[in-house]
Every structure is written in C-alpha cells, then in structure tokens.
Design brief:
Low-confidence stretches: 9-15
Mean pLDDT: 84
Shape: elongated
Largest sheet: 4 strands, antiparallel
Number of helices: 3
Strand order of the largest sheet: 1-4-3-2
Radius of gyration: 21 Å
Strand content: 25-35%
Number of strands: 4
C-alpha cells in the first residue's frame, strides 16, 4: 500500500531522506515542577490585591549524541502582593529532539528557538494547571519570542568574548 495516492494528490509514502535539514521531537516531558503557596490558607481566604507576577524564562540544550539534543525550557514565576509571596512556580519542561543535516547556524536556531517554540504551549498548560490546582486563577503566560531571547543571550556572550584579550 506504500505509494497509494490520496484524494488530495499526496502519496502515503514518506519522502526519501535527503540532504535537507530535518528535526523530530522524539519525546517531551516535565523534568522538574515545583509549586509553592507559602501563605496558604490566608492567601486563599483573604485574597490581597492583584499580585505582581514576575516571569523568568531560560532555554538550555545539551548534546546527547551526534544527532540528538535535550532541550530544557525553564520557567520561574514569582507572584507577590504587598511585598509578600503569593505563589511560586518553577518548571523545567524538556524535549529530546533529533536534528539531521543542519548546518551550524540553522542547528542553533532549530535547537534553541524552534524546539522551545514547539514545547512552550505544553509548558504553559502545566503552569496554568499548577496555579489553578493551587487555588488561584490559571496563570496563562503570553507567547514568548524565543529568537529574541536567544539574541539577548548572545549579546553579553559576544561582548565578553570581545573583552577577553587573546592568549
């Protein structure tokens, strides 16, 4: 049945692997999750004013073998009201991806921009569920521009490299 034509003119056979860049998400998972409600039950009984929410995002990757990478999206959320903590969420959400035939600049983009972009909605849902299950309204984090995040991380690294005298 391989190669059978479909109604829209597509073939059911997979295209032969070529030299074009390919990326596959093999698995994604919660690596670490922590939710703290340090002032419970007071924070739930007497809700204070709208909390100030600070969100920090980081992406790290490590090479597992010639083609596989573990990408970890870390999101830390601190909610404070009147100088007191309301809740804290720490999430490390990860994926193992396989990247083939990608030149170095594209490889960096696939691993540190595209992979977190793909797994972000799942991490966002984990955080929304954790805050809801903690007794608060679900925290829905706005979409993140991972390309800009990568650029922001590269600027200090490039400046440090330029300031370092050659040996």
């Amino acid at each position: 049945m391989a190669g059978e034509a479909r109604g829209n003119g597509e073939s059911s056979a997979l295209p032969p692997p070529g030299d074009s860049p390919q990326m596959f998400v093999n698995v994604q998972y919660t690596k670490d999750l922590s939710f703290e409600n340090p002032r419970a039950p007071q924070s739930l009984i007497q809700p204070a004013t709208q909390p100030e929410v600070a969100i920090n995002v980081d992406v790290k990757a490590r090479n597992l073998n010639a083609e596989a990478y573990e990408v970890v999206l870390t999101i830390n959320v601190n909610a404070n009201a009147q100088g007191e903590p309301v809740f804290l969420v720490e999430l490390a959400y990860a994926a193992v991806v396989t990247v083939r035939n990608a030149p170095e600049p594209l490889l960096t983009s696939l691993v540190l921009v595209e992979t977190p972009r793909i797994i972000f909605p799942f991490a966002r849902a984990v955080i929304a569920n954790a805050t809801r299950d903690g007794g608060f309204p679900p925290l829905l984090i706005n979409p993140i521009d991972f390309a800009e995040l990568l650029r922001q991380q590269q600027v200090p690294a490039q400046a440090a490299a330029e300031d370092t005298p050659p040996v």
